Amino acid sequence: MTTAYICKTCGTQFAPSAAPPSACPICEDERQYVPPGGQGWTSLPELQHSHMAAFGDDGGVLGIGSSPSFAIGQRALLVRTPAGNVLWDCISFIDETVVELIRGIGGIAAIAISHPHYYSTMLEWSRAFGGVPVYLHAADREWVMRAGPGIEWWEGETKEIGRGMTLIRAGGHFEGGTVLHWADGAGGKGAIFGGDILQVVADRKHVSFMRSFPNYIPLGAAAVRKIARIMEPWRFDAVYGAFWNRVIVQGGKQAVMASAERHIAWLEREAI
């Protein structure tokens, strides 16, 4: 008998095996961490006994998380459009109740994920909604711990996945770090879904650019300048981060550009 084990620290599901994996490469990377007590493992059936889904409006978009919080603690966002709903980022928890509730509001036409820390149980989500595509940037292929039907690798700098829905490769946190631009978001002013690539911080007036959030490794000036150049042509007013209530509801583009300038200024400031 095999089990598709899930890492308790990052929430990534691995290919089925007879015993838990010997290590989690995602957690052993400098952007994540292995807890002091060592790597722990669970499975989706176990999560379905210990956790439940949490739904809530977050900046006018439906957020989907788990209660209690699991692993990194991000929430997914269901972007509802006339052309089909897109699930942005992913969480490890899913059960039949979640599936039925989402089907009741139009289901999911596609899944797109910002970076490997949120790959979680993406194949379970794809399969639950009829094998819908999971869009991942090919530059992050090495970080997929469970490959399978449904994953659609994209290359280059942008990819349209629906009317007014465009994936943008911004890099930074990961080489294939992706943000989603929704042209009709924020009442037609445009919205960006940034995951950890453009992470909305506590003041909800700025974003942060980090190689590692838990280990406090900032991105260098060149990487941040590149992200700012990439985002400059896009029109957007709202920015959605990866966690509950981390949304800049207006003035988002100005916030991103000001945050980039501030980040670079502090990196290059002389010692005081």
Descriptors:
single chain; 272 residues; alpha+beta; Metallo-beta-lactamase, Chain A; 7-stranded mixed beta sheet; 6-stranded mixed beta sheet; 7 helices; 21% helix
Task: Write up what this structure looks like.
The chain has helices spanning 25-28, 44-50, 96-103, 122-128, 185-188, 221-231, 252-268; strands at 6-7, 41-42, 52-58, 61-67, 76-79, 86-88, 110-112, 134-137, 151-154, 158-162, 165-169, 178-182, 191-195, 199-200, 207-208, 210-212, 217-218, 238-241, 247-248. It is α+β, with helices and mostly antiparallel strands. The chain has one domain (6-268): Ribonuclease Z/Hydroxyacylglutathione hydrolase-like (Metallo-beta-lactamase, Chain A, 4-Layer Sandwich), CATH 3.60.15. The strands form five sheets. A seven-stranded mixed beta sheet has the order 3-4-5-6-7-8-9. A six-stranded mixed beta sheet has the order 10-11-12-13-18-19. A two-stranded antiparallel ribbon has the order 1-2. A hairpin with a 6-residue loop joins strand 5 and strand 6. Helix 6 packs antiparallel against helix 7 (252-268). The N and C termini lie far apart (61 Å). The mean pLDDT is 97.
